[in-house]
Structure formats: C-alpha cells, structure tokens
Specification:
CATH topology of the largest domain: Aspartate Aminotransferase, domain 2
Shape: globular
Largest sheet: 7 strands, mixed
CATH class of the largest domain: Alpha Beta
Mean pLDDT: 93
Order of helices and strands: HHEHEHEHEHEHEEHHHEEHHEH
Strand order of the largest sheet: 1-7-6-5-4-2-3
Number of helices: 13
Length: 362
Amino acid sequence: MIEWLRRQTGDPSRIHSEGMSARVAVEDARDRVAEFLGARSREVIFTSGATEAIAAATWGAAERRRDIIVSPVEHSAVREASREFVSPDGHVIEVSVDTHGRLDVDALAAALTDETALVHVQLGNHEVGTIQPVSSVIGLAQDHGALVHVDAAQANGHVPIDFGRLGADLVSVSAHKFGGPPGIGALLVRRGLRLRPLLLGGDQERARRAGFENVPAIVGFGVACDDLGDGRLEDEADRARIQTDRILVAAQQIDGVHTYGDPVDRLPHLVCLGIDGIEPQAVLLGLDQAGIAAHSGSACSSESLEPSPVLEAMGVDAHRSLRLSTGWNTTETDIDDLLDELPEVIARLRSLGQARVTLENG
C-alpha cells in the first residue's frame, strides 16, 4: 500500500503506462480476493466497504419484485437499505429469531412468496456471533425464485467462505474486519446475475460500480486475503476460539453476568455478555482505563441512544451488554489482562452504585 500511496497512481481505466500498471495491480488484487472467497474474479466488485456493498445489493435486487425479507438481528446497514430501497408498493417483512439470535427458518418459509425480491441473511451475527442457517435460507428462497444476500462482513477472515459452494446470489465483505485497510470491501455477484449499479458515471468494475478505483486500498485488501492462505485462517480461528472460550468460562463465574448468543455455533472471535445493573458506558470506560478496548452490544454507547435491536429481538436486556472480540494480534496476555480487570471493574462500579443508593436513602 505504501508503494501505491507514494507513486503517481494512474487511472486504471486509461491505456497509458501508469494506468496499465495500476490496472495490473487492481486485477492481481481481485484475483487474490476471489481465490480467498471461493469466487471467480469477474464476480468480485470492489466497493468502499460492506455498507456500500449491502446498499448496492439491495438497490439492484429490489426492482425485481415487490417485497424484501429481513430479520431484526441484521446489521443496521441491511435493515435501513431495505426500508429505503424496497419497491413503492412493496413491504419489508421481518421474520423472528430465537433467544440465541438465530433466524427462525419456519417463519421465513411462511413469509416467502412469489413476490419476494430479496432475502437478507447474515453468515454470523455482528453482536452475539451466532451462526445463521444460511444453507436453509438459500434453499427456501430459491424455491420461490428470490435472490439471497449474505452479509459476511463479520465472518469474513474469521471463518472460511466459499462463494461457489455457498449458493448465495450476493455476498458483502469488508477488508478492515480482518486486518485489511479501512475504506475497501467487495460485493460478490453470482455469475450471470445482472443488477443495476448503485453508483453511476463511469464503466469501472465492468460497468457495475462507477468511480476511480482506490488502488492502494485494493492492493492492501488483496494482500490481506493472500496472507490468510496456506492454513493461516484456520490457525487464527482456532486460536480465537480458545481465547473467547476462556472469556465465556470466566464470565460465568462473575455474579450478574450472562452470555448471549449460541455458545457453540458461533463466530470464533466474538462474544457478548450481559451485565446486570451497570450501564455499558461505565464498563467500557473502566476497561479503557486499564488499556482494554471493548464495545457495547448496544448502540446506545456510540452513535444512537436506542437499545440494541439485536438483543431486543432475542428477548434479553438490550441496554446493558459488553461485546468482546479478538483479532490476529490478540495475545494470551491480552486475555489474561481482560480476565483480571473485568471482575474488578464490575465490582468497583457496583460498589459505587451501592454507595450512591446509601447516600440517597440517608
């Protein structure tokens, strides 16, 4: 990436030397991404990230029929794109999930009709990690001629993905989720499927996504995919599973702490905890002071004041949760530090809360 940031990057659409050099770099990266995801090179459309890929998939598919099916545990990018792009005479139909956040296949079967344009389904949930029944969803949707979009942003780089075998029509991914650069992702489009492009103005990406390609980021995306080859993805996933299993076991020893999501059939790098009686912001700040970066499963700790729709749909406390994830550079010492600090942070906050109640009552 540094090489391409330093040099005068030519337009990959031009036939001068600089442009052709950039084109070679882009296509080499496309081959690497395609190989990593089990896709053909021509099925890979580079985007600015998974959010754009999701929007493009929804925009392109929505015109085919009337309705879009989504579950309440999908990422906000999926839910909002569906509401924005659904046909004027159509509906966004929500299907229920179980207490682990897994889509109810029977509810989906009942909701599908010959007017269904698109079904969204995650590969794995972004807050609680639960793996979704993607194969069953694809089979049911195909029976009705509906397209299926799989949001694999949270799963990509953490579990193997084979687009050819998966059977989905559309898959969205983002590079920054597994150590690649921010601002680059891809939409995989099944061979032979024609969708209207979301971005217009040029014939880039074989007329499927207009705009000057982000050559440095695309190169970085390709290298990140290449770096996870030769069994490294499986090794990282095994290490992440061991680390997050340690977190789950330790969390169950803390009073008033619960685990959310499927404890077994889940993404290897992510766990979500519920913490009784303490606001998530306080826990996040306490951990941050100890040098531990974490996040709340509830969006109320960041951009929105609303409780987590994922946790609400699961029927658990949507206001008080802690999301912990590991990455390629997470060490056992990092996990040790978390397991030392988390009980102390929780105990300190509960002590402060009890002191406040005592003062107020006194």
